[in-house]
Design goal:
Length: 69
């Protein structure tokens, strides 16, 4: 929606990113990394799914793998 309204110029920073199956926490609206990328996000804000993971490096690697397709 924003891409359609604003064009390619502005960078879209999207918070509330949660991998599939992750708890929403206090976020009212969430998207998976792939959904956000397909919707036109330039930057994803991923906090607790990484910082609260038992293995933060693995959590980040999994998200990166999802984005690579």
């Amino acid at each position: 929606m924003l891409r359609d309204a604003l064009g390619a110029g502005p960078l879209l920073v999207v918070p509330g990113i949660r991998p599939a199956g992750a708890a929403m926490g206090d976020q009212a609206r969430t998207m998976t990394p792939g959904e956000a990328a397909r919707a036109g996000a330039d930057w994803l804000v991923v906090g607790r799914p990484i910082t609260h993971a038992a293995d933060p490096a693995e959590a980040a690697a999994s998200i990166a793998a999802e984005l690579r397709g």
